[in-house]
Amino acid sequence: MTLKPRTSEFRLLPIIRRVTGSAECSGRGVTIALLDSGFYPHPELSNIVEMIDVTTERFQPSDFNKIRASSWHGTMVACAACGNGTYSNGFYRGLAPDASLVLIKVFDGRKIRSTSILRGLQWVLRNHMRLGIRIVNISAGGDRSEATDKGRMAEAVRELKQQGITVITAAGNNPSRPPVPPASCADAITVGGIHDANSTDRSQWTEYGTSHGRTADGHWKPDIAAPAALLPVPMLPDNALFEESMALFTLARTKKADLKKTARRHLRKTKLPSSVLFGSDRAIMRAIVDRMRAEKFFAPRHQHVDGTSFAAPIVASVVAQMLEANPSLTPGLIKLILQTTSRPVAAIAREAQGYGMLDGGAAVKEARIEHHRNAPDASPVVGKDRITFYYHDHTARKVCLIGDFTAWQKDVILLHSIDHGLWRADLPLLAEGKYRYKYLLDDRRWIEDPANPDKENDRYNGLNSYFVIGPKP
Q1: DSSP string, 31-100
Q2: How far apart are alpha carbons 29 and 46 in whole angstroms?
Q3: Are β-strands 224-227 and 416-419 bridged in parallel, bridged antiparallel, or unpaired?
Q4: What is the pTM of this model?
Q5: Biggest distance spanned by C-alpha atoms of the chain
Q6: Percent of the chain as helix, strand, coil, to the nearest 5
Q7: Residue 6's pLDDT is what?
Q8: Lower Cβ count inside 10 Å, N or C end of the chain?
Q9: C-alpha–C-alpha distance, residues 321 and 60, integer Å
């Protein structure tokens, strides 16, 4: 049973509330590989099965037992997904604390290179069966761009998908440019960010600042979004910053009459100037609070973090819950379920959020009842004499295909159910040209085709799917 901490500092919502995650699943029986700058075997990471540095030919396990600056990012990413909540009595645990972890370091001491990420993916391809890896999370970007469908990175991601491994990537935090590999790869689930203002009230949600746009192959990224600001994670232990955090919280809880005496005793562990001791009690407390805010300390042993780097592992933890609920899910089905259960945020441009904010509980619920193991994950399929559209959604009761070829009129083409949750429509082959379309679900909800990566802005704060008959322009 999870116990809420008694201290008043724990004001940030836990991740399970931010994405309405499943309380029944914890990632048990699922292995996640994380590619990141570096790692440390944090006390909140219960199930590390392997740690590997792919930037060197010689792997020294002891290297991971020393806390380095490069260890922070990867460790916090892992804790966002799989932290067990030890530091908060379970309150700030990740959604997949029982998942097994394979931690793959891709920082060579100078930078994260595309070649190192590629080596990490190739290592997973060689070792995934031995370790049972079902998910790869990449919260790091390469140092060059490439045509996503033809580059070596895309080939590795594609092969991982074919091997039944779901690849999840952080979109990046530069809204003025589209994602770069591996986030631009068509076969990856690319995660953007939403600033949820530490609230479940959707009217307060705003854009985080996600890299988004059309990739080199014309695909729109990101695919979905997750919270990317004010996210609670446990700090790295046994370093100066950790000691400062504990000292500052001791001071913040000290009675006014004892504040100066206590501050004098703990000042050396903080970065507060000694001159603060000559100020008033109010000035001392203001300096303490300002320092805590500067370092994002919000609770003992905890910081809050920001970025799509931390949105991605939240999605990875939901995927682990989905696979626990239904181990037969394929990467294609996982992506379709995530897309169709996410909901767009009206105040945010669709290009920056994909299909919208992750709904973890809805995704796990859909995963439980999913049985279309060989469902098509490409649509439309253009044949010699017809075009076949597929749509996959267990909640829909009516699916209407609307586009250029229906003069955007509803009820001209209805998909028929070929199995519960699987819909299909066949059209006679159209003349050469480019055609735009959407689905209308139950006469009330518009959605672009989740199985078609080719999209463009519809000029109404949304996206149209499109396909081309004949040579592509």
Answers
A1: EEEEEES-----TT---EEEEEETTSSS--GGGGGS--TTHHHHHHHHHHHH---GGGTTTT--S-TTSE
A2: 13
A3: unpaired
A4: 0.89
A5: 86
A6: 30, 25, 45
A7: 39
A8: N
A9: 32
